[in-house]
Amino acid sequence: MRAPRFWGNPPARPGWQARLLAPLAWLWAAATARRLARGARARVGAPVICVGNITVGGSGKTPTVMALVERLTARGRKPHVISRGHGGSLEGPLLVDERRHTAAEVGDEPLLIAPFAPVWIGADRAASAAAAVAAGADALVMDDGFQNAGLAQDLAIVVVDAEYGFGNGRVLPAGPLREPVAAGLARADLLLAVGPEAARARFARDWPARVPLLGAELRPLATGMDWTGLRALAFAGIGRPEKFFATLRARGAELVATRAFDDHAHYDPRLLARLRAEAKALGAQLVTTEKDAARLPPALRAGVLALPVRLAFADPAPLDAALDRLGL
């Protein structure tokens, strides 16, 4: 889905649509609270670190999972990742094989994470976690699942886009929140604001929280590619495509056209053919995100450039302290 514009309004001016949808938002929040209160919260013999969010859409969870896995590995741990496998057709628990599986089978995010650590998909997070521990995991990173009540979380990290914040502060469908901010942060151990330094400073001012605040920024991976002056037709089906377009412009690319699709968009051959034809007519190169590239049919990836990004912590000390407390 594409986020309605009124979701991004300042909390002081939520818009008439948000006020009209307030009763439905109350029902959504109540249902989430009831589900969480009735959860079993299983334990499987290894610490569980949840990387989730309170808003829907892109906030930087997947790069955060990658960075966390690298940090745990550097500490001598054997982390495995558990994921819902959103958009995939296969049932779990299933160990992802990036050489054999496709995004249509296991979801795009598991395919991106799989080169960093073993990834297990499945709707039953506790079953996936048990399978990971049986396979040798001594630390579990749960990609998303902050509102999942099936597995106990030893460290809950809430990720938020520092530029977007919590939108208009309203719960679905009146706003972008999966649950009220106060209710979510009451269960969080760390709040990770992802974005430029100035945006992180504004977020800290506008959304003061009692949760320890971490800062980080998404930076393009150094691949040797010179983007300066590249005429590009950029397309993306992520939570906030405009962030990707802005990153390309900052790298010096000339975006002659942009195409924004729904989050986790499916790219079939006909759509790719239209994009290729448009790019050819404009004398432009097709460029997309690493996440979108994972969803492209393998036979159609040729000629499409991807811009990979990685998470860089501003000050990882609070995270390292939390990992120390878990014995990781």
TrEMBL record:
Keywords: ATP-binding, Kinase, Lipid A biosynthesis, Lipid biosynthesis, Lipid metabolism, Nucleotide-binding, Transferase. Pfam families: LpxK (PF02606). One of its GO terms (molecular function) is ATP binding. It catalyses: a lipid A disaccharide + ATP = a lipid IVA + ADP + H(+). ATP binds at residues 55-62. GO terms for biological process: lipid A biosynthetic process; lipopolysaccharide core region biosynthetic process. Its EC number is 2.7.1.130. InterPro entries: LpxK, P-loop_NTPase. It is an enzyme of class 2 (transferase). GO terms for cellular component: plasma membrane. Pathway: Glycolipid biosynthesis; lipid IV(A) biosynthesis; lipid IV(A) from (3R)-3-hydroxytetradecanoyl-[acyl-carrier-protein] and UDP-N-acetyl-alpha-D-glucosamine: step 6/6. It comes from the Bacteria. SUPFAM superfamilies: P-loop containing nucleoside triphosphate hydrolases (SSF52540). Transfers the gamma-phosphate of ATP to the 4'-position of a tetraacyldisaccharide 1-phosphate intermediate (termed DS-1-P) to form tetraacyldisaccharide 1,4'-bis-phosphate (lipid IVA). Belongs to the LpxK family. This is Tetraacyldisaccharide 4'-kinase. It comes from Amaricoccus solimangrovi.
